[in-house]
Amino acid sequence: MIDLGLSKLAIIGVVALVVIGPEKLPKVARMAGSLYGRAQRYLNEVKSEVSREIEMEELKNLQKEVQQAAQNVKQDVEKAVSDNLGEIQGDLQGAWDGTPLPVTERLISATPDDLSRKAREFRRKKLVRNSAIPGWYKQRHGGKMHVTSGAARVARFRPRGNSSSSFY
């Protein structure tokens, strides 16, 4: 940009005052300001339009790359399916007829007893993890501790003095 300091602006103002005259100077200054504002707005619009065009070009390139990758994956899948089509049809026909799959390909399923055991272990571990026992207490006393109620803690730490005393 043009380097205009205060002294240069003062000289331009004095020359404009002498050349234009004091009557027309405010009108000329307003017109110059409005022209300067229009020029700035036009430049900003051009810059934003150029950046939008660049972004659109990048998005088009990205779209082409994604479409190419999708086409490659589709071709790979079609090739794999066509290569194994006879085997897949034989397995489907065998499943339809009720013949079991070979032992090596059979899926191993969990029994209800295994599932219930895993659920119990999960609940127990979650209770130990999320229990209200502070971390320092767990560290001092060996980590996994059972949850103790407030009344049990009071009874445990109550002084062993006179047991016949009462609140009344």
TrEMBL record:
Subcellular location: Cell membrane; Membrane
Keyword field: Cell inner membrane, Cell membrane, Coiled coil, Membrane, Protein transport, Translocation, Transmembrane, Transmembrane helix, Transport
Subcellular location, principal: membrane
GO cellular component: TAT protein transport complex
Keyword Translocase: no
Signal sequence annotation: none
Topological category with respect to the lipid bilayer: Single-pass membrane protein
One MF term in the entry's GO annotations: protein transmembrane transporter activity
A Pfam short name: TatA_B_E
Task of the protein: Part of the twin-arginine translocation (Tat) system that transports large folded proteins containing a characteristic twin-arginine motif in their signal peptide across membranes. Together with TatC, TatB is part of a receptor directly interacting with Tat signal peptides. TatB may form an oligomeric binding site that transiently accommodates folded Tat precursor proteins before their translocation.
HAMAP family cross-referenced by the UniProt entry: TatB
Subunit note: The Tat system comprises two distinct complexes: a TatABC complex, containing multiple copies of TatA, TatB and TatC subunits, and a separate TatA complex, containing only TatA subunits. Substrates initially bind to the TatABC complex, which probably triggers association of the separate TatA complex to form the active translocon.
Stated family: Belongs to the TatB family.
NCBIfam families, per the entry: tatB
Protein name (record): Sec-independent protein translocase protein TatB
UniProt source species: Rugamonas brunnea
Gene designation per UniProt: tatB
